[in-house]
Amino acid sequence: MKPRIELGIDPGGTSGHYAMLHNADGVWTVQITAFKNVTLAEFFNDLKDLNEECDVECVSEVVHGFPEMSTIAVSSFMRNMGHIEMALAASGIPTRYVTPQTWMKYYGVKKDKNESKTVWKKRLREVLQQRLPSVECSVEEADAVLIALYGKLTRQ
What we know:
It contains 5 helices and 5 strands. The chain has a single domain (4-154), classed as 2-Layer Sandwich (Nucleotidyltransferase, domain 5), CATH 3.30.420.10. It has a 5-stranded mixed beta sheet with strand order 3-2-1-4-5. The protein is α/β, with parallel strands linked by helices.
């Protein structure tokens, strides 16, 4: 039987990550990679190899542009998301898409109106550490791991 891997994708522009979450005999392991550290070909090859060796399911955050973003930034952001979607499709990994509001609501967290991004990200990492104390990650990586865990906990 192939090991089960939960893949979580936080496609954020320069801060995007993907996390591979695995539970073997009650011990959680996670591998987190920043998109800025891999080429599209490397990402695709990682997915293809992963799908051949493991039973994998992916949950990816749904993204969109914001009014304060420039046209160039939105174009780049969406092109990156298209690359991610194509790599997932080509590798044959089943993927569900979830809005940030949905997965955050699942964990019972909501960003306060006047909360800074730094404080908010630290709070998300705290939520992760409460759920998976053995998993170490930075505040930038926590979203991807929480999305992967959300995938495991909501899988039907």
